Amino acid sequence: MATETTEAEGSSLVFHPMDQFIVKPLFGDGGIAWYTPTNVTLWLFLAIAAVFGLLVLSTSKRAIVPTRMQSVAELAYGFIYKMLEDICGKEGVKYFPYVMTLFMFIVCANFLGMLPMSFTTTSHFAVTIPLALAVFLTVTVLGFVKNGAAFLGLFWVSSAPMALRPVLAIIELISYFVRPVSHSIRLAGNVMAGHAVIKVFAGFAAIAAISPVSVLAITAMYGLEVLVSFIQAYVFTILTCVYLKDALHPSH
Amino acid sequence: MATEPISEEVVGSCVDSYGSAIGMPQLCFDWFPNQIFWLVITLVVIFLVLSRVALPRIAAILAERQGTITNDLAAAEDLKAKAVEAEEAYNKALADARAEAQRIAAEARAEIQADLDEAIVKADAEIAAKAAESEKAIAEIRAGALESIQIVAKDTAAELVTTLGGKADADAISKAVDAQTKG
Asked: What does the domain layout of chain A look like in residue ranges?
């Protein structure tokens, strides 16, 4: 694995690209119980602070002509609201706070993770899997509550020839249960890969001859990662909307 | 990245004795309960903040702005209609004023014409009177002059006849002079 301490050319070149993802207690050196405040706690709470600042503090003046920060809040609101309304229709608007929570949390956590020396909470499966599972369970429960057994019509492709339908049903079923896996791994994988690559490039900077290239590469990767931070939040949110649409209108 | 080995009890199955990660820290299940616990708290807090405070507030702001814009547009429509009305009124007033001015001008012209006519008639009468008077005076003067001429002519003729050695016959001379002057 990439985490093996690779020692090359003597002892100068040491890579620890995965060390940035280690969970540490904030206070003391003890073990990590479920309640221990850790660096995860710190950066999750900073995400709360970021969301709070972005959406609550910036709109505290309730200006008719918005300030810059208020514009950002309104833009985020309109962006997600429109996405949800476009995909799920009017019935989907009810779940707007839920979708908005997911989007704001992921986007803030991603961008906080772009700060040097920070801990990127969204690079952990322990964070993205619960997020994806929550979406999966909500959508499944909602689908059955709203549509009853008709929700199973999602797997029964009525537009296909009769002979193909059982086969398609199996494929649909598998793809349905793969959703939370792909949903969570996509986000964590993208964020983790970018951060690890930056760390690897940073390790190369120890060699004087390559360091300019390394710095350039880090800069380029950083730009890409900024993009990825937003796009992955967007993708996660839009997929949530799509899954929600399946629960609300299960017919193909 | 500690260079010194750290104590054994801190090191779990995920971190080696130098504080570096063993494998992917993402797959360290020892940390999952901790991460999930804090994540749930975070999500609940964010959800509450958004659904109780932020989203209603932003919705209110957007609605208020929409309302303001709609009102402003309506007001603008109103003002525009008023402006059109005012322009119409202005044009009407202008046309009225123009007509009034024309009427007044025509009236004035007619009045002046009447005055003028009257004055011309009066002047004509005066002129006629003056002319008649003058004619009379001229006739008088002419008559006076004829008489004087006849007297002078008669006297002159009488003188001439006397000087030429004749005898002045007053009647003959008078007749002759009359006959000459009449011609």
From this structure: 21-248
CB A114 within 8 A of CB A229: yes
Look at the alpha carbons of B54, B58, B64, B67 in this order and tell me if their dihedral is positive or negative.
negative
Contact criterion met (CB < 8 Å) for B26 and A96: no
A100/B26 touch (CB, cutoff 8 Å), yes or no = no
pLDDT score of B96: 96
Query: What is the pTM for the complete model shown?
Result: 0.74
d(C-alpha B145, C-alpha B138), whole Å: 10
Q: How many CB pairs under 8 A join A and B?
A: 159
More confident of the two residues B83 and A203: B83
Q: Is A71 on the interface with B (CB under 8 A)?
A: no
Asked if residue B56 has pLDDT above 60, the reply is yes
Judged by CB atoms within 8 Å, which residues 52-81 of B form the interface with A?
53-55, 57-62, 64-65, 68
Residue B18 pLDDT more than 80? no
Give the integer Cα–Cα distance in Å for B53 and B166. 159
DSSP B6: P
Residue among B25, B39, B58 whose CB faces A77 most closely: B58
Contact assignment for A124 to B26 by CB distance below 8 Å: yes
**Residue tagged 């057994």 (tokens):** A149
**Per-position b or e across B118-148, b if 16+ CB within 10 A of its CB:** eeeeeeeeeeeeeeeeeeeeeeeeeeeeeee
What confidence category does residue A10 fall into, taking pLDDT thresholds of 50, 70 and 90? very low
- Quote the minimal CA–CA distance from A236 to chain B in Å: 15
Q: In angstroms, rounded to a whole number, what is the distance separating the alpha carbons of residues A64 and A99?
A: 26
Q: Is B44 on the interface with A (CB under 8 A)?
A: no
* Average pLDDT score over chain B: 87
Check if A80 contacts B (Cβ < 8 Å): no
| Dist CA B80 CA B86 (whole Å) | 10
Give the pLDDT confidence of A41-80 residue by residue, as tens digits: 999 999 999 999 999 999 998 888 889 999 999 999 999 9
